Amino acid sequence: MQRSWQAVVIVLVSILALPSSSFSSSELPLTADGTVLELDESNFDLAISSFDYILVDFYAPWCGHCKRLSPELDAAAPQLAKLKEPIVLAKLNADKFTRLAKKYDVDAYPTIKIFMHGVPVDYYGPRKAELLVRYLKKFVAPDVSILESDSSINEFVEASGPYFPIYLGFGLDESIISKFAIKYKKKAWFSVAKGFSEDIMVSYDFDKVPSLVSIHPNYNNERSIFYGPFEDKFLEEFIKQSLFPLVLPINYDTLKLLKDDERKIALTIVKDEDDDQTKNLINLLKAAASANRDLVFAYVGAKQWGEFADSFGDKKTTLPKMIIWDGEEEYLMVIGSESIIGNDHASEISKFVEGYREGRTEERRVAGPSFIGFINSMIGTWSVYIIVFIVAIVMLFQYLTKDDNEYHRVDTPAQDQVDQISGSSTSQVERTEYRAGDKED
Q1: Which pLDDT does position 247 carry in this prediction?
Q2: Domain annotation covers residue 3
Q3: Residues 236 and 258 in one domain
Q4: CA–centroid distance for 305 within its chain
Q5: Where in the sequence is the domain holding 349, given as residue range(s)?
Q6: SS3 (DSSP) at 213
Q7: Strands (E), 302-422
Q8: Where are any strands of DSSP class E within 302-429?
Q9: CA 149, CA 351: separation in Å to the nearest integer?
């Protein structure tokens, strides 16, 4: 009996002596203490439910981009934790916790998502600490900021940064735009100016009130002015159409943004986005875009993204050319306006739009995947290459060792994956190649 009690005492003492890490992390309280939380299967759901705003970095230990991002998150975390509504930064080893990675559609490293009241949204913002803090403050800012003077207007525009369009209401009541400010909070800044001078009217290019001015800081402060009517239908239409600049450059990030827009895309394909001829053409396209807001006007350079440009017709077609794309598998060529040729590009653009409006079109299919599928297709292609490579390594390994009892290790990324599949207990070496579909900075 005495030995039994001694055993019980020993067990209790042993339990008490265990470090706190021995208990499930899901039992530990989570706080916004200015550090980057390390999440796993046991505490992920708890973290998402504990904080109204939490940004999660889905990373892989071997990913170079992830290693560069890590110290930036460490630097930003204390600043974001001090906000009136704290934003918590966290990270999850998605290469290890694959169930969570699959649940949140993580197909590249790093993938960053911000969870707002439990709802995940893809993060496409900057990754440097200072800029990341400025970008994330958007999500905890007031739905509509009230501006009382010229200086507060200018300060608001400056503090908003370059990553979101800005809507400034002049002579408007806050209630008129508040519900749209809530609806589009993830995509734009909203404010109402209660006090302003004529200097502000000159600076922001409006000549009467009430008016709503949209500004795109990232596109040379491009402005659009709306004078009404301020009924919900027309107001929301202006807000939605002004989320993009008049002429949108097509790249990896902007293509993803377009998936939420239902308008057809008037796409201009040029040789080189950076040459002077293209810059002049873009100015002409802006005039056409202003008069045709039911279309998204966009452009892409064959030099900058040749594979995307080539998916719309024959490479031999003279550039620049315009097409109408539905964002999926179909696009329209306007008969008689296959290319923008001649010296009068403005007339050629007008002729193209007129031909589209009148139905003088020929339907064609995109020579490749549609929309976001176009981007993700690279992931699928490289996945096939990697699988074939791994299979070849396995077969070679089996051939070389079938008559030899000695185990030969090959330190390559592919072999690491083979070892994981076969249950090898050897130590993990750092991989120097990225997984197919890795995002670029």
Answers
A1: 96
A2: no
A3: no
A4: 18
A5: 247-368
A6: strand
A7: 321-325, 330-334, 361-365
A8: 321-325, 330-334, 361-365
A9: 46
Q: Of 208, 241, 274, which residue constitutes the final position of a domain?
A: 241
Give the domain CATH number at 126: 3.40.30.10
| Residue 247 tokens, joined | 């002429």
Model pLDDT for residues 383-400, shown as the tens digit of each residue: 444 555 665 676 666 666
Q: Count of domains in the chain?
A: 4
Catalytic residue among 60, 66, 76, 166: 66
Tell me whether residue 66 is one of the annotated catalytic residues. yes
**Tokens encoding 384:** 């096939």
Note the pLDDT tens digit of each residue in 395-425: 666 666 554 444 344 343 444 443 443 444 3
DSSP string, 224-263: EEE----SHHHHHHHHHHTTS-SEEEPSHHHHHHGGG--S
Q: Name the pairing type of β-strands 88-93 and 53-59.
A: parallel
Could you tell me the CA-to-CA distances from 391 to 364, 394, 395, 422 in Å, in that order?
Answer: 39, 5, 6, 13
**Bridge partners (DSSP) listed for residue 296:** 265
Strongest mean pLDDT among 20-34, 256-270, 424-438: 256-270
Q: Look up residue 270 and give its two tokens.
A: 């040029």
Residue with the two structure tokens 């960053």? 112
Catalytic residue among 37, 55, 63, 282: 63
Contact 41, 100 (CB under 8 A): yes
Identify whether 329 is a catalytic site residue: no
